[in-house]
Every structure is written in structure tokens, then in C-alpha cells.
Amino acid sequence: MTAGLRQLSRRSLRAFLASVVISCQPQPRRFLDAADKWQWEKVLDPLIPAVEAAIGQRDGPLPYDGFCFILHKGADKTSVAGRICSYCVQFAPRRVSIVHAAADRDQAAELRKVMTEEKALNPWFLPGYEIHNYDITGPTGDVEILSSDAKTSHGKRADLIICDELTVWKSRELWDTLNSTSVKRQGCLTLILCNAGYAGTWQDAAIKEFKKSPRWYVYHPSGIVASWINRQKVDEIRKTMLPTEAQRLFDNIFVESLVNAAFPPEAVEQMFLTHNGRPLGGISFEELAA
């Protein structure tokens, strides 16, 4: 059985994904049996040929060399990145180089956690596949793990660049470096997986450009699309969150950042009123606003 699964996986990324067992409720199952229809049709069907071309598994020009998937919280984004990395470092037809850039060290740790769990669930994975703190190595490739909150430069040629949660990166320096790095190797593929972010930011501007570009495939559905998310629990959680954060994380909407928010005058006035409706210190709102 082990030999058969390995042989199937060498044929294609799709065969690997169909075979890999993932952690899910109520018990681990093959991704083929656990995945939603939208995951195949909207994410993997367009993405698989591009990944295979980037690692030398298929020939021919492809319509996209950039993919951006904007999905709600809990939509299996980091896990998808982990499975692609796992496949490339084990079953690519040639040695490949991947860069995985996360929002911060915690997000980078989440990638390692997902990949470690799935490695344990799939004993048929190849010998030599190792997951370390800042890199992942395998018989056919390696993954360098970076975080946007670390002071680092990157000039390495890559076959695949994965940007995890780009919309909350603290600095654009790493993005600019990776984006320019993508031109160093013909066929380099850029993959972005993120929640919706904040209006007016550099990330918002970049994604708007992706949506206009014929070279980019962007999937940005409204609301929750994953069947495994408990909608009733989400409704309860909303009551304990800032409305804008709930809209961003669950409704998948770009929202105004509270850091630079411009509140309407009536809201500011209310902040300065006492319990009996008189302005604090006898200062009128008109005087306060003057």
C-alpha cells in the first residue's frame, strides 16, 4: 500500500491530495473525502496545474503566475499551503526551492504544526522529509520559512513563493523583496492565502491590482463558505468581538482600520457627555470641536 501511494503521488499533486489523510472531526480522513466542493473547483482546480508547471511536472504556458485566495477565518488556508509544500519536497520531478512567508512567528509555527500533524497521519511519506523551525527539507526540495516581523533580507531564487496572511503583515519590506525575487526564475509562482484586510492599506491596493491583472487569479467569496464552520457558534462569537473584526474575519470584507478611523461627530460628542446629558466640565461640543 505504501509503495502504491507513493507511486500515485509521483504522478500528480491531485493524486497526492486525494490520498493524504488530514486531521479533521470527528476523526482523520483522506482530504478527498473531507474537502468541500468549492475547495476543488475554486482553489485547487486552477492552482494545481500552475504548481505542477512551477516544479517541472508539466509543460506549456499557463494563464496565471499569481494566485490570491481571500477566505474567512478557519477556511483551511495554512493547511493548503502545508500540503503543497509537503508534496513539492517529496514528489517533485526535480529539486525545487520554496519560500513560505508568514505574518509573524506564530503563523509560521502554525504551518509547522499542520505539516507535523499530517506527516504523523501519513506513514507512507518518504524518508528524509524533515520539518525544522525555520526550514523544511525533503528528497526533492526545501522550504525556507520567513516571517514579516523578522529583520531579514531574501535574495534566493525560488520556484514557489507562498505568502500567508499577507493582509496583516506588519511591514511591506518583505513583500517587496519577495515580489521582485519572483522575476529571477522563469515560471516562479506566487501564492497568497489570507483573510480580508483593511481598506486603504498597501495590501488592499495590491489586491485591487491583482484583481485587474490578467496574470493573477483571485478568489474572494463573500461570507463563510466552509461547511465545517459552525454558523451558530460564529453568531455567538460576534457578540464578543469588534463588529469590524467580525466583518473582516467571518464576512470576508475589507474594513476600515480603527487606528486611522474617522468617527462621526455625534459619536465623538457622545464620548464627552455625562450621565445627565451635560457636557463634561461645562464645555459645549461646539467649543470642543472648534
Indicate the CATH class of the domain at 36-230: Alpha Beta
> In whole angstroms, how far apart are the ends?
78 Å
CATH architecture of the domain at 36-230: 3-Layer(aba) Sandwich
CATH homologous superfamily grouping of the domain at 36-230: P-loop containing nucleotide triphosphate hydrolases
Give the overall shape, derived from the CA principal axes: globular
Order of helices and strands: HHEEHHEHEHEEEEHEHEHHHH
CATH topology of the domain at 36-230: Rossmann fold
Could you tell me the radius of gyration in angstroms?
22 Å
Strand-residue fraction? 15-25%
Give the helix tally: 12
Helix content: 40-55%
Largest sheet features: 8 strands, mixed
- Secondary structure tally: strands: 10
Summed over residues and divided by their number, the pLDDT gives a mean of 87
Q: How does the helix and strand content classify structurally?
A: alpha/beta
Low-confidence stretches at least 5 residues in length (pLDDT < 50)? Answer: 260-290
Instruction: Give the strand order of the largest sheet, numbering strands 1, 2, ... along the chain.
Output: 5-6-7-4-8-9-3-10
Can you give me a brief rundown of this structure?
The protein is of the alpha/beta class and 290 residues long. 41% of the residues lie in helices and 15% in strands. The chain has a domain at 36-230: Rossmann fold, CATH 3.40.50.
